[in-house]
Amino acid sequence: MYPLQSQLACFVCADFITFCVHIQIERRLELVRLVSHNTHKRLVSCLQGQLGTDTEKRHKKLPLTMLSQAMQEGGSQLGDESLIGKMMDVCGEAESRLAAELMHYEVQIERDIMDPLNQLAEVEIPNILKQRKQLAKLVLDYDSAKTRWYQATKSNNQAMAAKTDSLKDEMDEALNKVEICKVDLSTLSVKTLTSLPDCWMEKPAFGMALEEHLKRSNREIALPLEACVMMLLETGMKEEGLFRIAAGASKLKKLKAALDCSTSQLEEFYSDPHAVAGALKSYLRELPEPLMTFGLYDEWTQASNVSDPDKRLQALWVTCDHLPKTHKANLRYLVKFLAKLAQNSEVNKMTPSNIAIVLGPNLLWAKTEGTLAEMAAATSVHVVAIIEPIIQHADWFFPEEVDFNVSGMFAMPTHSATPDPDPVLDRKRPGSLVGQDGDSHTPRKDRYLPRPNLSLPLTLSSRPKTLSRQESRGPVVSALYVVANESITVTETPTEDLPSPDFKAVSQSNVAPINPVIDQ
């Protein structure tokens, strides 16, 4: 196929896809309009009062009001001496109160439900459909102008070539009309949404407190967190610079809006893992309280400042156990995913250290005045020292298995699982999880470290030699998730005078440099 024909074929395919999308949207809008119209019609027939009248007239026209008046008139005719007369008078007053309650209820139904439904069915949706038809016409005009201009640029005919500038101006003008119509349509749509009652609207997940979002949505894991993790498991695990490279603003805004609507129809975003990672960072950053909580900030910082490596791990473990239940469950979910992401650091360059640098300031910050950038800069060093070992030793901090598709809303990843970098490598847990007898290949009988007694000093039976922060920034050092292009061994020297197990660092060639200032 010739280049011109190929280009025209692409234009035709794009137009056809756009046409199909427009048809689907218009059918959906028409269905919403029809349902709203029918519901409004049935509600009108259920009302006992007259629609649209003031409260006094509506109250007088109610059957209960007429019954109340008849009973009270009968009671007055029979007199106070008559028992039936007294009963009729009392029941008449009760019926009058019932009529008043019914009147107020119908007025509220009309105001909160019937009027918005009628406005939506008879005004808002017809206006949107009209604007969409106008936009579709302008898009066709633009495509036609674009095709003519493209043909002129590729034509060998001098007469056609001379018209190139005028055709270019015509195409630009058509594009400008399309953009103006898009803005008008967006404004109209936003106006329609903001005019709806608050009770009709799905509360946004971004910017809402974690506990409130989970309670409203009846979820265990926040929707933006689960949705982004599921999409990244599918297409983002081997994407270089994930969480570092910024996404397009328009795509990120669109994805956040989709997640705020609690939709699981996110197929169009699978192809842009950086937008998905950006949405995840944005969700964590916009939480009113960080995932690792304000209340434990000092405790996290003190734990990270413990000089002894084993006691530091134990202190971090204790602090993690103090998290509220919902925060701990969501942190466990996220950390398990980040540890899985670090397994592919040979390809994606995201080691636990790099992940901690770019994502840590979105997980924990101090409750102080100032901009987010200032708070992040003030706490970034402490946060990296906290997040990095948690990711490195994820299965030690959170030994339970995680089903990433918690809600069942999303399809499980179709790609094959990442193979172990070295099938013969015996992975060990940190610190005292190494065998007591000095044999690094003999695990302890107890699978996990016992929870430390807070009233006693934090000690471990044997401790690993951990790299300093400066040393561990480059290599991937993990007793659980090891990713390298060289052979890595974990051994322990039986001699008591020598330090316990050492880690052989991986090659620096696979680790991408990080600029904390830029990434924050």
TrEMBL record:
The gene is arhgap17b. Residues 456-469 have a biased composition (Polar residues). GO terms for cellular component: cytosol. It comes from Sander lucioperca. Residues 208-398 form the Rho-GAP domain. Residues 438-449 have a biased composition (Basic and acidic residues). GO terms for biological process: regulation of actin cytoskeleton organization; regulation of Rac protein signal transduction; signal transduction. One of its GO terms (molecular function) is GTPase activator activity. This is Rho GTPase activating protein 17b. PROSITE patterns: RHOGAP. Residues 415-471 are annotated as: Disordered.
